[in-house]
Design brief:
The complex is a heterotrimer of chains A (578), B (216) and C (201). Chain A has 578 residues and is of the alpha+beta class. In chain A, 37% of the residues lie in helices and 17% in strands. Chain A is built from 20 helices and 17 strands. In chain A, the strands form 6 sheets. Chain A has a 5-stranded mixed beta sheet. Chain A has a 3-stranded antiparallel beta sheet with strand order 10-11-12. A 3-stranded antiparallel beta sheet of chain A has the order 15-16-17. Chain B is globular, with a radius of gyration of 21 Å. In chain B, the strands form 2 sheets. Chain B has a 3-stranded parallel beta sheet. A two-stranded antiparallel ribbon of chain B has the order 4-5. With 201 residues, chain C is an alpha+beta fold. Chain C has helices at residues 4-26, 35-41, 90-94, 132-136, 160-163, 167-173, 175-200, and strands at residues 69-75, 81-83, 100-106, 113-123, 142-144, 157-158, 164-166. Chain C starts with a helix and ends with a helix. Chains in contact: A-B, A-C, B-C. At the A-B interface, helix 4, helix 6 and helix 10 of A face helix 3, strand 4, strand 5 and helix 7 of B.
Chain lengths: 578, 216, 201
Amino acid sequence: MTTLVETETLDLAARFPGSAAVDTRPGYSGWIVNKDRLVEVATALRDEFGYDLLSHVTGVDYFPDKMEVVYNAYKTTGGPGVLFKVQVPRLDPIEVPSVTPIWPGAEFQEREIWDLYGIKFTNHPDLRRILMWEGFEGHPLRKDWHEPFYEEDFKPLKSRWPDGKYVSAEDKNPYKDNLQFPQNFDPAKVTLDGEAPLYDTLQKYTTVDAGIKTDHIIVNMGPQHPSTHGVFRAAVVLDGETIVSLKPVMGYLHRNHEKIGERNTFLQNMPYTDRLDYFNSMSNNWGYSLAVEKLMNIKVAERAEYLRVIMAELSRIQNHLILIGMLLNDLGAYFTPALYAFEERELILDIFEATSGTRMMCNYHRFGGVSRDLPEGVLEKIRGLVEDRLPRKADEFDRLLTENEIFISRMKGVKVIDGEDAIKYSVTGPVLRAAGIPYDVRRAQPYGIYDRFDFDVALRHGGDLYDNYLIRLDEIRQSIRILQQAVKQIPDGPINSQKPQYQVRVPAGEAYGRIEAPKGELGYYVISTGKPNPWRYHVRAPSFMNITALEKMCVGKKIADFVVILGVLDIVLGELDR
Amino acid sequence: MTDNKELNSPGYEIPEDLQHAVSITTIDRLYNWGRRWSVWPMMFGLACCAIEMIAAQAARYDLARFGMEVMRPSPRQSDLMIVAGTVTKKMIPAIVRLYNQMPEPKYVIAMGACASGGGPFKEGYNVVAGVDKFVPVDVYIPGCPPTPQALTAGLMKLQEKIDKESIRKVRWYQKGADSVELPIPVLGPDLMDPRRYNEIRVLAAKPAEPATESKA
Amino acid sequence: MYGKGIIKGLGVTLKHFVDTYLDDIQWWGRRYYKTGGIAHRSSKDTRGIFTVQYPEEKLPVPEEFRYVPFLVYDEGADGKKEVRCTSCGICAKVCPPQCIWIVRSNDPQTGRPVPEPTEFYIDADICMNCGFCAEYCPFDAIIMDHDYEIASYQRNVFNMQKLLKPASYYRSIRPLNYQRNDEERKAKEAAKAAKAEASAS
């Protein structure tokens, strides 16, 4: 087993005198970089210092004086990351140079920051709104922007108690609905075509070949399409069946997690995280509690650590089972493998239901531990599953699919992405590992008690669809291995190191908690000001990052392969759109 | 079987010696019986609830027992739209369009808190507080998300509703357009319902009020 | 040999098909509509048909299962409903989507708060079933219900009348929790009584 030590302390101030300074605000870390030299610093970090994976970019609105853009980069060889920030005055137009040329993975995130904060990225290849539609009024995550149903800045709301006569939010709004319009607005005069900028970015062509004129065809897949795994949409330009150009369109499930999260108290965010990647609420909880526990500087109860591992790994198994089942659906094997996968998923959900109370939205973690202990008999059930049933299932899928010739001819050789590009595009999770990069947060920067378990980081080298399928089976087997050890070792004891309390005290500062979710690196960037509510609550959603590379993955392939690529990317819209 | 019993109770006494041979029913009953056991839902999921909807279709809950296993990806072939998940402003034009494309008879189930009334995300700026503001909803299923059994209970509630309809009164056999066509909302500075353009114009012309904490 | 993989896969499907009959024969007469049969079908050893024939048979929900919350009242000696809620407002404060509205009652003479709510609303179309209200209620007055068959033809805003359910119902759905809470309450009352006695003497 390897232990990772912080080998070097980075000194950006020495490398860029006068342009980089240590962030000295209490509770903060990292570097504050001069806006004008951002591109230089970022290039140096990538090329000289080896921080090749840009984990996330996000904005923070320090109302009323400044805006900040936060960058977080890691090394794919493991170890701690580097956090650097750019501060700009809060006066429109707010402009920051784009880092997309250095890390293409920043493209969608910078678009998101433009959409939600109104920070313009100069030199960005395609700066359009991403989650909201073109023409929407305002930049919603700014602290001085209020939604139509706005009541107060922070929860709990005063209108609920002690004089909480029920008045629906609609009745408080002049339009009697979730609406607001600018002064003297006339709806009949709206002429803006929100779709036009999208179609402008698509590459089009007309060719005359041997006297036959061929023209492009634009196909919109989604937002309601059976193969897009939710309300995802892709605008595709086709030459026959070959994809010439592709732009993902998202935001159809943008549920304003971050805006709501900044109004909630710290604890109230916990059930909201369930609804991000709704297959894996157990993992989602973990990332968030990790970040807040870092801020609070508390230890997690020993038994709770084991319970967290058990639940997260069970969650991973059912996620990958469904992925394989649904992947075959996408390939045209209508429903049989999916039905087989759902049996084991139901058995795993039974365990979640008995322990946490619901099948999907578990809301299981609390700061310092978990909410409930395993009821009687459930540990036996888990043992039965991990010793017997799940290994059998993995073998069964192996027999059912792995050697199937039709399956192989569809999957083998269709490259999803190679390792180098995957890193550039900030792709993480199984897709990255299938491309030959052994990067797994459980090993790269162990959290919880993963350093105690004996397991291998699943790895494949081809990076094609078939490897992406195989790595899911590998990961199921590794998770079973971890579970078998965890079930044996789990100690008795309290399940929470803290007293149950609904109002936690979180010292001021920032924290980034990240875990290896089944879909990739899931991180939560939380800023506390010492108040009961977070100032900033940002989710680094693996689905969102992985989709950045979709165009790169799909151009030149057949439209039928696009469906399968989307399948192995394993996007979940709750997390993609947040 | 229970369904045969339901079919064969028209309110007339059948002599005992004929009971094995004669069955009397009404057209309404036959019509509704045929429809209630073959409601084809649209393969249409929005968010978390859709996963429970798939689970309800899968091995353990198996909606095929209700004749509802045929999930149609196309609205043209489906009878029932299960709105499973949060309805966002960006998505609602597509949903209304899908609803318009469904042939009569058509039903809508609002599955889960979000579709019924906005749910936990109601306060969000991109969330429609209940799909019933745009399309007529027949059955509301609370829960976040409703378990597959709760969904099945909701579908049975819909069957009860179908049972109460009469072939003489259903709107799709009346004179006039054979399907309800709803105006499709437009995305402007905010979501605009074409039915409400005048109202919006009048309200927007009013001077902006200071945000009041109404404590009614 | 080309096609070997397909045949292997078909073997799996065939096994599933045969297993259906094997398990039916093995559990002849006990597999459906019986508690033991449902338990078998949700155990790790189940083979064959996995379906629970809802609504004829229902999958038992575990004790911790949570759906929409309800309010508990104790049945008083003369059949009076003694509402456990003291309108302290913790549930309304902790509720993540803020779907609870409570009107605290005041004594008409003194104007001071009385530990009982005048009105209590839960908007079931906002509630996210997270269970925080029940978890942090110090009086076990609000409990997550097990009843999930609550589909209706209209939107659901529950008022106090709809929310109140007797303590006996609470005991029937969550026996272990009820017992634990009851013991805690009794211990607390005993301690209080002992303290009162000590200060009186």
